[in-house]
Amino acid sequence: MIRRLGINPAALAYAMTTLGSGMINNIFSFYYVKLFLNKYKISEGAFHQSQVVYMVWNAVNDPLFGYLQDTSKVPCCSQRRLSILYGAPLYSLAFLLAWFPWRSYTPGDWLSGLHLTVALCAFDGMLTFVLLAQCALFAEISSHHQNRLRLIKYSQVASLVGSSSILFCGVLSKNMEDFSAFQAFSVLTAVLSCGCMLYTGFHSEGRFDTKAPEAEIPRSVDGAASSQVADSASMMWRLTWQILTNRDFQLFVLMNFFQVFMLAFFNNFTIIFTEHLIPPDVLPSLAKSVMYGAGFICPQLLVLVCQGQLQNLGYYRIILFTFYVEVGMAIIMLALGPHHYYIMAFFLTANMVIVQAAFSLFSLPLADIIDTDMQKHKRSSPLSSMVFGTNALFTKPAQSLAPMIVLNILNQFGYEQLKDPGNNSDPSALEGLHSVMFYLVCLVPVCVAALQALAWRPFSIRSSHTLDAKYVDC
């Protein structure tokens, strides 16, 4: 039935997890900082402590889950679709943890800090378990560039639909002003998200699911468990070292670290910057909801429109070009100044779009790195989850560093007292805060994108879009 409609079943099954995860990931990353700072009134110290714990957990769980999924003999870990099938319900439940306070919080309540820590760690743990399996599927469904572009295409369509959750959430809850409506929408989104990911769990299949794990260790006759643990640890370190010494992997990780930083910067603070830098009489609440929705929907449209360029030019040139565009736009905005409100709204939205669109292509270079690693070390099956997990070990801390650094800077200029732009505040203090926000919005993209361009230029895998498959697709 699906094939008769011209839909590829493998690509559809893969994309359903993108749809489900996109629905909840975008809402979580966009609203959690504002929720805990403005509604739960978490103290800066508790916020930083939660982010530090999250940063450590965020970095460590990726390589651990990656090693577990690549080497485990337990089907729910070793088979990608089963990891998604069993992880999806817990993933959706973890999403809901943040939106329901454990009691009526007073400003600086220690329990709000604990709540944030648990919500971040639970959500990221399940996100990692499910999406690592999906990332591994991307590399293992096919090694042919055209087939991978098809997965990207289906995934972007799914992400386009999933990203609309931000738009509907903003409109229905008035950008979280109606918190009860926000909570109800979150529950509905979690249920729909779970159903989408379960579809992948039932219908997707990786080409290596039936093969023995790369690091499978035979059981000793005498059952010496300690020897097996030592051998397993030794194998893990050896495989990880082989990944880390790949020059292209090193360059990609450095560039990706800054990309994750930029994603967190815009996802966490665009709503705060917009409320302070653009007056409500210029952009009413509904217009801002549309703006936020566009920031999450348009990246997928951009990637879909650029499918031809991806096929002809390859991801290397397109990713490099986005860095130059980011630098150019930020310099123009800096030169124009903060009082061109419509241009400011366009600039913030365009940055969200370009950063997210470029990030959507990062599975392609990682898949090529997995292919070259498999060929170089003559592996029977690829270390897909380990490569994605090791990449995350070094890049995920940027998700915590961005809000910690930005909040620290803003609080030095009185954000904690001036966080509600509607309050009657000292005009000079408010002007100073807005000035700092404007310079952050302009200078952070200039500096970060320039560093990314320097890191990305030496990347050597540039022609995979012109090559045939490295092994025969099933």
Summarize the structure.
It comes from Oryzias latipes. Helices cover 76% and strands 0% of the residues. By secondary structure, the protein is mainly alpha-helical.
Structure description:
76% of the residues lie in helices and 0% in strands. The protein is built from 18 helices and no strands. It has 474 residues and is an all-alpha fold. Helix 5 runs antiparallel to helix 15. It folds into two domains: 1-207, Growth Hormone, Chain: A (Up-down Bundle); 240-465, Growth Hormone, Chain: A (Up-down Bundle). The longest helix is centred in the N-terminal third of the chain and has 32 residues, at 110-141.
How is this fold's topology laid out?
Elements: H1 9-39, H2 44-71, H3 75-78, H4 80-96, H5 110-141, H6 145-173, H7 179-203, H8 225-244, H9 247-277, H10 285-305, H11 307-313, H12 315-336, H13 341-359, H14 363-376, H15 384-395, H16 397-412, H17 415-418, H18 427-456
Helix pairs in contact: 1-5, 1-6, 1-7, 1-9, 2-5, 2-15, 2-16, 4-5, 4-7, 5-15, 6-7, 6-10, 9-13, 9-15, 9-16, 9-18, 10-13, 11-12, 12-13, 12-18
Pfam families: MFS_2 (PF13347)
Subcellular location: Membrane
Protein name: Major facilitator superfamily domain containing 13a-like
